[in-house]
Amino acid sequence: MAQAFFGGVHPNDMKAATNEKAIEQLAAPAEVVIPMSMHIGAPCKPIVAVGDKVKIGQRIGEPGGFVSAPIHASISGTVKAVEPRPFNMGGKMMSVVIENDFQNEVSEEVKPVADPDSLTPEQLVEIVKNAGIVGQGGATFPTHVKISSGLGKVDYVIINAAECEPYITGDHRTCLERPEQVIKGATLLAKCFGVDKVYIGIEANKQNAADVLNKTIAELNAPVVVEVLHTRYPQGAEKQLVQAFSGRQVPSGKLPADVGCVVSNTSTAKAISDAIQKGMPLVERVVSVTGEYIKIPGNYMVTLCTNVQEIIDHCGGVTGEDVVRKMGGPMMGAPIQDTNVPIIKGSNGIIAIAADHTEEKECIKCGRCVDVCPMELQPLEIYKLGQLGDAEGLLKLNVMDCFSCKCCEYICSSKIPLVSKINAAKGLVMPLLKKK
C-alpha cells in the first residue's frame, strides 16, 4: 500500500479544543428553515404547503433529477412558509419553514429493514436514495448516484476517516462514539459492491479512534480493515485517498470509479447504517463548533437546518473582534457574512478564527505552490493565464482538476489569493468545455 501522495502541507491541526469533547445532542430548535438544495445537483421541489402538519423523517422535497437527493423534515410541526430564504452558499434558496410542535413525532415512512442481509445492491441503492444521503465530508454529492454508477466497476471501497481539515473533529468523535454504525455502514457497502473487504483510512493523529474501530471490527467479525495514514493535508481528498490506498492515480477529468475505486465519508457510512437499521433518513449530523473565538467549543449532534447563529449562541457566542466565521474548516471552508442561515447536510463545522490581514505581495517565483499541489498542477502559471484570459492555455494546464484545497495559498510566500484566482480562471474554461 502506497500510503503517500504528491505534495500536501502540514498545517497545525488545531484540534485540541474539541478532539476530546464527546458529541453532545443539541436540542431541536423552535423553527427550522429547510432549503430545497442540500446537495450537488438539481434542487428539490417542495411537496408540502403552508399549514401542513409534518413529522420527523417525512419527505418534503422531491428530487429535481437523477443527480439530486430528497429532503425530509428534521422536526415535527407545522409548515409556516414555503418561500426563498437566505442560504449559506449565498443568495436565497426556496425553503420550507417548519414551526416545531416539540412532539417529536416520527413519520410512518420511517421503517427499519427487516432483513438487511437479504438486500440486493439495487435495493440498497434505493434505500440510500430515499434517505436523502449525500457525501457529508463537504462535497454533498448524492450517495445513491455514486454507488449506482460504480456497480460492476469498483473493486476498492474506501471509507474516509482522515478528517485532515484543521479544527474539525466530528468524524473523529463519530469513530470513537458510534463505531458500530460506521462499521455496519462500511459492511453494507462491501456487500453492495461485492468486495471482500472495505478499507478505512484514518490519520496517525487519531490512533485512539483507529483502536476503537479495530476492536469493533473484531467484535462484529466485519470485512473491514483500518489503515493508519500519514498525517498530512489534504490526506482526506478523494483522489489522494485512492492513491494512498491503491496506488492508482485518477486521470485528469476522471472520477475514482474510473480506476475501480469509490470513497465514502465516515459520517456518510453511519448515515447508510441508520437508513438500514433504523429506517431514518438524513435529518441530523455532527458539527464541530470551534476556533479561538468560540467561547465554549464542542462537537454537537445538530438537527439539520438549525440556524447557525443559534448554534453559536449555544456555544457562548463569538468573543473578540476582527473575527472570520467559516462554515467548515480554515482551508476549504466558506466564509459566512450572515449567520442567519441553516446548517445543511454538508456542514461539518462552524469556526471563528482571527482575520488574516497579511498583504499580497509580488510573486518571488519560489515555486513552492507547485511543490505542494496534490494534483500536480502549476498554480502560478494558471494564475497568469487567467489574468491573460487564455482559456485554451488553462485547459491544457488541467485547471479543472483544482479542488480548492488551498495548499498553494497556505505555502505562498507572497500571500497571493491563488484559489480565488484559479476559480475565476475556471469560469473562462467553462464555455470551451460545453462545446466539447
Q: Strand-residue fraction?
A: 15-25%
Unreliable parts: none
Calculate the terminal CA-CA distance, rounded to whole Å: 37 Å
Strand order of the largest sheet: 1-14-13-17-15-16
Globally, the shape reads globular
Mean pLDDT, to the nearest integer, reads 95
Which range best describes the helical content: under 10%, 10-25%, 25-40%, 40-55%, 55-70% or over 70%?
A: 25-40%
Largest sheet: 6 strands, mixed
> Can you count the beta strands?
17
Structural class: alpha/beta
Number of helices: 13
**H/E order of the elements?**
EEEEEEEEHHEHHEHEHEHEEHEEEHHHHH
Computed over alpha carbons, the radius of gyration is: 21 Å
Describe the structure.
This protein is of the alpha/beta class and 436 residues long. Helices cover 29% and strands 19% of the residues. The chain has a six-stranded mixed sheet. A four-stranded antiparallel sheet has the order 2-8-7-4, with no helix packed on it. A hairpin with an 8-residue loop joins strand 5 (59-62) and strand 6. Helix 1 crosses helix 4 and helix 10 (379-388) packs across helix 13 (418-435). The longest helix is centred in the C-terminal third of the chain and has 18 residues, at 418-435.
